[in-house]
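Hi U.,

Before I forget, here's the chain from the pilot set. I'm dumping it here mostly so it's searchable later in email.
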Amino acid sequence: MSDHDRAEAARIRLELAEQHARGEAKEAQALIDWFVAEAHRRGIEPVPLRATTFDGHKVRTDKRGWYLRQNHSVAIDTDGGYHSLVVAGGWGARLRGVTLPGDQPQLVVGRGGRDGETGTLREFLQWVLEGRVEQRD
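Structure:
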């Protein structure tokens, strides 16, 4: 196989992976939109979301929402945004807080993580609705 053929095969694999991720994100976003509406319907109040910097400090964010994991590393905001709450930051972040960019939602939460808190997005959303995830810092 020539270098050109290998490069083309790699490009095709990357394109297929990106296409799969976009499809997964669309499906995940539908679940998230349902969750946000259901949380509001049930009167489950959103909380101010806080992020953790790489060096372990808690910082304010510009979002309110619901934590999906017990360690508060992933959350859904009130607009249906999906957020990883582990951020870079220094003194400025500790003083001013951080602006959270939205992350592409996934159908599996914690995929590739080593902390054992992995499962389907549907499960994590249901646990929040059942009150099984602590929402306070």
